Amino acid sequence: MYLPPFRYVAPRTLDEAIALLREHGDDAKVLAGGQSLLPLMMLGLARPGVLVDVNGIPGLDRIEADGDAVRVGALVRHRAVETDPRLRAACPVLADAAPLIGNIRVRHRGTVGGSLAHADPAAEVPLVATALGATVEVRGAGGARDIPVHEFFRGYLETALGPAEVVTALRLPARGPRMGYGLAELVRRSGDFATVSACAVLGLDGGGRCTHAAVAIGGVGPSALRMRGAERLLIGQLPGDRTLDDAADAVRAEVAPESDVHASADYRRAMARVMARRALGAAVARAGGESRAAGPGAVRS
Amino acid sequence: MSAAAGAPREWPDRVALRFALNGRAVDAWAAPHDTLLAVLRDTLGATEVKYGCGEGVCGTCTVLLDGAPINACLTLGVHAQGRTITTVRGLAAAAGAPGTAAGDMHPLQRAFVAHEAAQCGFCTPGMLLTAYALLADHPHPTRAEIRTALGGNLCRCTGYTRIVDAVEACVRARQGGDRA
Ligand SMILES: Cc1cc2nc3c(=O)[nH]c(=O)nc-3n(C[C@H](O)[C@H](O)[C@H](O)COP(=O)(O)OP(=O)(O)OC[C@H]3O[C@@H](n4cnc5c(N)ncnc54)[C@H](O)[C@@H]3O)c2cc1C
Ligand code: FES
Ligand code: FES
What is the CATH number of domain B90-174? Predict the structure, then answer.
C-alpha cells in the first residue's frame, strides 16, 4: 500500500514534460495510468526519484479517425479503446483486444501509451500494433518522430524511446474492405497476462485469395513477433482449412520460446500453433464478408 | 506551472487535497507518494476500502472515481483532486434513490444479504462496487456477462456462485420492475 517517496510534478504541456525528463535524466519516469509503474515501485523493482505525471496534459487523450488511419493518443485509456464507437468502426481488432487486458480497474486507468512504453511481451496493444504494422508517434527535445512498430520494440521491456522522449500517439491503418482479423489467447486465470497470444489480419481479393497476411504472436519472445514464414504460405492462396493448418504449423516451427515458471518452451510452441490457427480462422470468417458475425471478438481459453 | 529551464523548482512534500467522498466534500493533506488507498484508509478513516494485494490483482480496494471502478492501491491520492470518489458506504446514495444517505443499503447489498453472498466479507466492498459499475453500463447483463465483469475480483471464501446469484437476482428483480 505504501510507495517509496519521490518528487512529483504534473506539467501542463508536452514541452514542459520533456524539459523535466531532460533535466532529471535516468532519475525521472513518466507516470501515465500507473498500472505497471506503480506495482514495480511497490515491489522495489523501480525507484525513480522524480515522477513526471502526464495525466494533466491536454490533447493526449484524443482518438482521431479519418478514412485511412486511426490515431489513438497516448493517454487514451484501455477502457476508452474498448467502448469508443469510432475506434471500433475503424479498428475493430484493437477494440476487441482491449477487454482482454487485465481487469476493469486496470483498463479504466491503464493507457495505450503506457502499454507501448512498458513493452511487455504478452501485452495486447503491442501485439495488435505489431500485426497491423502500426506507427508509434514520439516527441523529444529534438522534435517529433514516427517509429514503425517493428523498430519500436527492442527487447524485453525495452523500446527505441530516447531518455527524454514521450510517446504521444499510436497510428494504425483503418480496416479496409474484405479485411478480417482474429485474436486468440491462452490465459491461466481471468485477468492474467496471456501465456501465448495471437493476432491475425488477412485481406482477400474478389476471388477470395489472400492479398495481405499478417500473423503476430505474443508471449514467445522478448516482444510480439511477426510470423513471416506463415504469412508467405498464405499470400496468393485461397484460405481453406488446409492452408490455415499449414500456416499454423509454420508458426509452430517459427517461434523459439523459452521455458519459464508459467509454461515450458514446448507447451508455448504447441499453444502458439493453436492460437494462430484460431486467430486465422476468425480472420477468414470476417474477411469473407461475414462482417462482424464471426462470433465473439476474441477467443480466450 | 512554470518550468523555465534551470529555474529552481519547488517540490512540495504535502499537497492539500479536496474531493467528494460519498457525496461530501473532504479535505486531506497527502504526500505525492501516498496512494489513494492510504489517503482513504489512514487519513480519512474510510476503512471500508480494503487492502489485499497492493498490486491491482485482487479488487478488494475497488473504489469508483467519477463512477469508474479503479484500483485505489494503484492510484495516487493526488489523482482524486477535485473528483468524486465512491466507496461501498456511498453506494445507496450514489444510486440516487430518493431519501438515501451514506450507510443505507443499495438493492445489490440487500441481494448479497439475501443470497448469503459473503463469508468473511473482505472481498464484498469490491464485489459490490464492481457489480454496481457493471449495472450502470449494462442494466441487464447475462449470467456470463456478470461472471466476466466480476472476473477481476477475487474471493477466497464463497466459491463465487452466491455472489453471481445475488447480482443476477438483482438484475431479474429490476427486469420485473421494468415490465410492471
Ligand atoms: C493486475 C494487472 C493485470 C494486468 N494485465 C494486463 C494484461 O493482461 N495485458 C496488458 O497488456 N497489460 C496488463 N496490465 C498492464 C496495464 O495494461 C498497464 O496499464 C500498461 O501496461 C501500462 O500503462 P499505464 O498507462 O498504466 O503506464 P504506467 O504504469 O504509468 O507506465 C508504464 C511505463 O511506461 C512509461 N510511460 C507511460 N506512458 C508513457 C508515455 N506516454 N511516454 C513514454 N513513456 C511512458 C512509464 O514511465 C513506465 O515506465 C496489467 C496490470 C495490472 C496491474
Ligand atoms: S489491494 Fe488493490 S487490487 Fe488488491
Ligand atoms: S467472502 Fe471472504 S473473500 Fe470473499
Answer: 1.10.150.120
Chain B residues touching A14 at Cβ < 8 A = none
Q: Which residues contact A267 (CB under 8 A, 6 or more apart)?
A: none
B154 lines ligand 1 (CB under 6 A): no
What DSSP character marks residue A26? G
CA of A190 to the centre of ligand 2 (A): 15
Q: Which atom of ligand 3 is nearest to the CA of B156?
A: 3
Identify which ligand lies nearest to the alpha carbon of B120: 3
Domain encompassing residue A27: 7-53
Q: Which three cell numbers stand for residue A107?
A: 483498463
Query: In a 3-state reduction of DSSP, which class is residue A57?
Result: coil
Are B1 and A23 within 8 A, CB to CB? no
Residue nearest atom 19 of ligand 1, based on CA coordinates: A110
ipTM reported for the complex, 2 dp: 0.92
Report the candidate in A136, A184, A181 with the shortest Cα–Cα distance to residue A160.
Answer: A136
Pick the CATH number of B15-87 from 3.40.630.30, 3.10.20.30, 3.30.300.30, 3.40.50.2300: 3.10.20.30
From residue B174, give the alpha-carbon distance in Å to each of A235, B96, B168: 52, 15, 10
Ligand 3 centre to CA of B163 (Å) is 10
Please give chain A's pLDDT, 301 residues, in tens. Answer: 799 999 999 999 999 999 999 999 999 999 999 999 999 999 999 999 999 999 999 999 999 998 899 999 999 999 999 999 999 999 999 999 999 999 999 999 999 999 999 999 999 999 999 999 999 999 999 999 999 999 999 999 999 999 899 999 999 999 988 999 999 999 998 788 999 999 999 999 999 999 999 999 999 999 999 999 999 999 999 999 999 999 999 999 999 999 999 999 999 999 999 999 999 999 999 998 443 344 556 667 6
* Cβ-contact A224, A218 below 8 angstroms: yes
The set of residues, in sequence order, having a beta carbon less than 8 Å from that of A6 and lying 6+ positions away, is A41, A48, A49, A50, A51, B32, B33
Residues of A whose CB is below 8 A from B149: 104
- Domains in chain A: how many in total? 3
Chain A interface residues (partner B, CB cutoff 8 A) = 1-12, 16, 19-20, 23, 31, 34-35, 38-39, 42-43, 51, 53, 55, 79, 102-106, 108-109, 190-191
